[in-house]
Design goal:
This protein is of the alpha+beta class. It is built from 9 helices and 24 strands. It has 5 domains: about 80 residues, no CATH class; about 80 residues, no CATH class; about 45 residues, Membrane-bound Lytic Murein Transglycosylase D, Chain A; about 80 residues, Resuscitation-promoting factor rpfb (Resuscitation-promoting factor rpfb fold), CATH 2.20.230.10; about 120 residues, Thrombin, subunit H (Beta Barrel), CATH 2.40.10. The chain has a 6-stranded antiparallel β-barrel with strand order 19-20-21-24-23-22. Strands 4, 7, 8 and 10 form a 4-stranded antiparallel sheet that branches.
Length: about 475
């Protein structure tokens, strides 16, 4: 066991007042003021008596730390003074005073962050275990990910383990050191909410931002604070930043391209998908860097195509549609304008259903669900939905009444009846494109959609039409 004890006895004349003593002095008495590590510990009749008590204290300290290598720092000296009256320090108080100022030191290992010691442990292995424990949760986070492989882990700061001789009382165990490194050494100040408090006025009172308080109290509902509730005024702050570098592998779709081709096999305005597009797939490798689990950068290092995309080929018709021999026929409006009963109305699918019932060139009776107005139409064509024309000028007038006296693109729920079949549908009332009928006062055609039908331009279902179809079906 190595011990370091410095004893210096200095005698000089010095006048002292204000110390508590336990033995009275008689008249003018020479006394000795005892100092340990420059701190006054007592006033004695005899310096030898002080050294005797001092030796007992040192012996007791050695017994307390038996088997451990310690260094006792205790520089002793005396100053002679003439006392006219007062009390001498008794042995018990002297021993207590000496114990309080004697420095007991030991060899330890400091965890040093950016040249600043933050805690001290008994052994190098203990200090290393603390740092590994700090890294472990971030290491596990990567290792538990299915598509990531840890490449490197370390600290952003300059972190070292350095041997130092320190006060024995400053040496901590592994758990305490871990807490110091991960949450800091500052005490977390708390505030008890009072009646009328808001996060804003609390933040203003302590020169904080509301976001600071919310970060320190992640479980807090800012709208539900109440008197008596306690808030942390700052979040614990780790003294180190764990930096992980991981290789992440993931797959990503390669979108297909759409190739448009003209074809004379289709009429103008018609479109057909000759080849359905298919997305490809690629594997991507990146290096991801995180600080305390938060991604701060991403570097792409490789890309492998696993499946090539397949182009979608769309055919656009260029053929001129022949003029029907009956295209200029003037129709006579049927006399039956009785509203169609809503009983038995079906949401008939367009493809393979309504398309086969309401065929090209056929005439249908239509009722507007909202007003009960009835009119007739002829289907002139259409692939994704029915392109229709009002049968007569009187039918055009009914359509305009439905829309308040003008044509409109608005969707309206209707029931279409063909050969006794009643089908839920949706219409717009705006003339566009070509026409086959004359004298119906409708310069073009309009669209009627059925369940699952699509637009011609986008080949997509129009949600507004579909919503109106459900209304027509009573859903």
């Amino acid at each position: 066991m190595k011990k370091s004890i410095a004893v210096l006895v200095m005698v000089c004349f010095f006048f002292l007042t204000g110390f508590a003593y336990s033995e009275e002095m008689d008249g003018n008495t020479t006394a000795y003021v005892m100092y340990v590590n420059d701190v006054e510990v007592g006033v004695l009749k005899s310096a030898a008596k002080g050294l005797s008590v001092y030796d007992e204290v040192i012996e007791a300290i050695n017994e307390k730390y038996a088997g451990q290598q310690i260094y006792i720092g205790a520089e002793v000296y005396f100053k002679e003074t003439e006392m006219y009256s007062g009390l001498f320090t008794d042995e018990y108080d002297l021993a207590e005073n000496i114990q309080q100022v004697v420095e007991v030191k030991a060899d330890a290992f400091a965890i040093v962050v950016d040249e600043e010691p933050v805690c001290f442990l008994k052994t190098y292995d203990e200090a290393l275990e603390v740092l590994e424990r700090v890294k472990s949760s971030y290491r596990s986070m990567v290792e538990q990910s299915e598509n990531a492989m840890l490449e490197d882990i370390g600290f952003k700061e300059n972190v070292e383990i350095i041997p130092q001789t320190v006060l024995y009382s400053s040496i901590v165990d592994i758990d305490k050191a871990f807490k110091i490194v991960t949450t800091g050494v500052a005490e977390i100040q708390e505030y008890e909410i009072k009646e009328g408090d808001t996060l804003w006025n609390i933040a203003r009172q302590y020169d904080l931002k509301v976001s600071d308080i919310e970060a320190a109290n992640p479980e807090l509902n800012p709208e539900m604070i109440k008197p008596g509730q306690k808030l942390k005024l700052q979040a614990p702050k780790s003294l180190v930043t764990v930096v992980t570098r991981e290789k992440v592998t993931y797959t990503e779709e390669i979108p297909f391209d759409t190739v448009v081709k003209n074809t004379s096999n289709l009429y103008k305005g018609e479109k057909k998908i000759e080849q359905q597009g298919q997305n490809g797939q690629k594997q991507i490798e990146v290096y991801v860097t995180r600080e305390n689990g938060v991604e701060v950068s991403r570097e792409k290092i490789g890309e492998t195509v696993l499946k090539q995309p397949v182009d979608q080929i769309e055919l656009i018709g260029t053929k001129i549609r022949p003029v029907s021999k009956t295209s200029n026929r003037n129709y006579t409006r049927p006399s039956d304008l009785t509203p169609i009963s809503k009983n038995g109305v079906e949401m008939t699918p367009w493809f393979g259903g309504a398309d086969k019932i309401f065929t090209r060139g056929s005439i249908a009776k239509v009722i507007h669900v909202g007003t009960g107005l009835t009119f007739y139409v002829k289907r002139r064509g259409g692939t994704n939905h029915a392109d229709c024309e009002p049968l007569t000028a009187a039918d055009t007038a009914v359509i305009k009444r439905i829309y308040g006296g003008s044509f409109s693109w608005d969707r309206e729920p209707i029931i279409v009846q063909v050969n006794g079949k009643k089908m839920a549908a949706s219409m717009n009332g705006m003339p566009h494109g070509g026409s086959t009928l004359t004298n119906n006062n409708f310069p073009g055609h309009f669209c009627i959609h059925f369940y699952g039908s699509r637009t011609h331009g986008t080949n997509k279902i129009d949600p507004d039409h579909q919503a109106a179809i459900k209304v027509a079906a009573g859903k």
